[in-house]
Input
Amino acid sequence: MDKFDIDEILASLSVRARAAGDMLDIREISALAEYDDASENDIKELLSLLGSEGISFCCDGISFGKDRIKQLTNEIRESCEEERAAAAGRSEDTVRMYLREISALEPSDAHREHELVLSMLEGDEDAAEGLVEDAMYIPVLTAMKHLGRGMLFLDLVQEGNLALMAAAQEITDPAISFSAFCAFRLERLMTELTGGEDQPLMKIPGAAAEDLARVIEEEKKLDSSLVEKEKLSALSAALKLDEKRIAGLLELEKELLTARKTDGQDAESPVEAEENEADKFLSRQVGEMLASLSQMEARVISMRFGIGEKGELSYEDIAGRLGITAVEAEEIEKQAMLHLGRQNY
Output
């Protein structure tokens, strides 16, 4: 991929927009996420320049009627998500229900979006909510592109919705298309979450990961002579979990082991094996710690201490990801640490 040249890209997009009646599809902007050196500020500058030229954005082919919902759920089913979805407590019905809710929303046209941005910049909180609500089709469309790469559809959509809310707090220039900027942000986000096309990863949602750790720990206490049905029954009784969910979690464990072998991670020296056991124990402890917190507290603590992240995040970074203020992020961290202290972690 060539370097991101804003002048060259602006000229190219302007030509295509003029040929289409001063209109571009937001997917023209999401495609720019392929440029590794393109920052969000670069995209904001580009969108501001396009907006100042009178160029608007749309998303052609958007439809969430019954046939489209059926098609989407079939695609999700065919992406081999069923076992992981069962383990995470999700179902095809849940996906279909969410898509039906989205179908009731009407994506805003360029004029309505611009009016909402202007109202939001004047302090109208309802306008900010409307802006986000009108753009909730974007996480769905983006998540569909990343099916079968290790994360569940609804988990990707949830991350995308959080990113929408954060983006609404960052737009300060009315010339910038909110939907086009979000299309870029979500494409970049979901590529990072799934590892991209060239590096599919096995990722498990937080709730499933915590339950899986509990199942593995409890499984060690069982008599090795138990048959599969007896094992499921014993685990269900001990952990207060449905047998089907436990079966799904055990399938997840097998998938993880298979993925490790495929990547050549099964060849370990004695020292590496001992270190890995320590890592597993620490991971279980961390999982139990996070499970004792609220969802928001767990997310803030994970980001603050780099758990499941590429590194530790600042309060400002956390605020941007979660759509809250830096002060609120710091306060949530303090409350979580007080709670953990009371739990003797």
Notes: Confidence is low (pLDDT under 50) at residues 198-203, 265-275. Residues 204-267 form one domain.
